[in-house]
Amino acid sequence: MRREASTTQAPALEASQLERRFGAVRALDGLDLSVPQGTFYGLLGPNGAGKTTAIAILTTQLRPTAGRARVLGRDVVAERAQVRRAVGLVFQEPSLDRDLSGREQLDLHARLYHLPERRARVEEMLALVGIGSHADRPVRALSGGMRRRLEIARGLLHRPRVLFLDEPTLGLDVAARLAIWEHLRDIHARGETTLFLTTHAMAEADALCERVGILDRGRLVVEGEPEALKAALGGDRISLELEKGEGAEDRLRAVAGVVRVEPDPTLPRPPASVRLAVTTADGPRRLPALLEVVRPNGLVAVDLHRPTLEEVFLHHTGHVFEPPGADPRP
Amino acid sequence: MSRLLLDAATLFRRELLRYRRDRAYWVGQIALPLVVVAFLGFGLNDVVRLPTETDYLGHLASGMLALLVTSGAVGGGFTLIQDRESGFLRALVVAPVSAASLVLGKVAARVAVSLVLVALLVAVFASFTALRPIHWGAIGLAVIGLTTCFVALGVALAARLRSFESFRLIAALATIPLYLLSGIFYPVSTLPAPSRMLAWGNPLTYGADLLRHGLLDVHEIEPLRSALVLVALALVALVLAGAALERREPA
Fold first, then answer.
1. ipTM above 0.85, yes or no
2. Are B73 and B151 in contact (CB under 8 A)?
């Protein structure tokens, strides 16, 4: 809504040594964060890592017990009203009036935000999230994906400069999730809004976010671009199965970017074939050259494995991302 | 201040949209008083002689209107729990909408619904009882005062409770004695002294008597006094509701 000149250069979000205790539990334990404006940022972590607490503090719903946080240069405690005007929020839990239609719902909130040109804005948001033809059905008659899209439309209604999305695709089926991803990419492409998403689905962050931070037990363990984080694990792994092994290892080591070549012990070995594991940066682009040098060895099969954000999490925290049965939610 | 009223008006619209859609609600609200007056009122009409010189049918009909307004108002407070359950309240708190706007919106919507219900029912009752709109101001004030008072008390209660079940139970526990000690079913002056003392402390007594003044031109309490007490109690209830909400749902 209102844009003050003094805040235009500030990062969208900043947190330093942010801490929140609930009794003896530290939901956030010294969170440091800096998100430039316009970024699509993903805060990743298992359930209970502190993601929702972080959003609650950054959107002024909860006070930190220590440390400080700023949104567009405004302190979330001292300048609560300004922060509230600048942010939009899509809750993890539903927050719609089930008896109203989508259009009525957005109109209601447009009135509560005292928006000028209310009708036009409501129609624009309905179109943005693709609700148009269902806009007059009561929310109780809409699918889970439709409801989420409506919540996103409501979050964007007052033109927030930062939109927080807490697990926006939790509980949705694949098609609905992909539809939400498309809408979020559209919103990001418009360039008006910083998007801050939390998710426990690593693939979601990988597919959407320019930068991700991995949160574990209330602390940020690592942060960066998804590609860079994965590359930092040492690169992609290419498994080659060859008819005969003469000279293959040396020729593979000579290819640019290759870090390591070793016998691949991971697969059951049929007699008379040779298996090699090649570790390299940028696997998909190196693959043609690698295949070229092993042509004389008689290529039987090839497999490319790229590290996932799960492996990044494992690498930096020393424990698996989600132990079986850790998710208490349906 | 203007923002508070604008937000209250917005929430008023929303409540009305919800009420308008709930057809079963309207059928129930109109049918219940008619059934009670028709079945109980006709039966007792020739048995009961009232000190107020009106027939029992008229007395009961006006009393049922007061009861309808009051129970509807408590139900209006109950919608706060629905708003919390559906998550809608969360979105309001973040918007941010003040607790005062929320209470005012709910009160205003409930007043509108009560006025419509009372108008419809008076039209029906006028065909077979002595009820007539005689003092319009007294009728209006009784409906507005009772509604405000009990929506606000309902909200104050709902703000402290988490579940539908506990609200229904506690609301019933709190309101049934109020109904019985209020002059709805029989004039307060017929009660034994201790019960009568309790009835004088009941907001519903003043609302029911004021409504009876408006519809039958009889009263047990000076109408001006009823009006003043009702307005004062409504204001106190509003403050209680606002305070309970601010504490439970920090904006």
1. no
2. yes
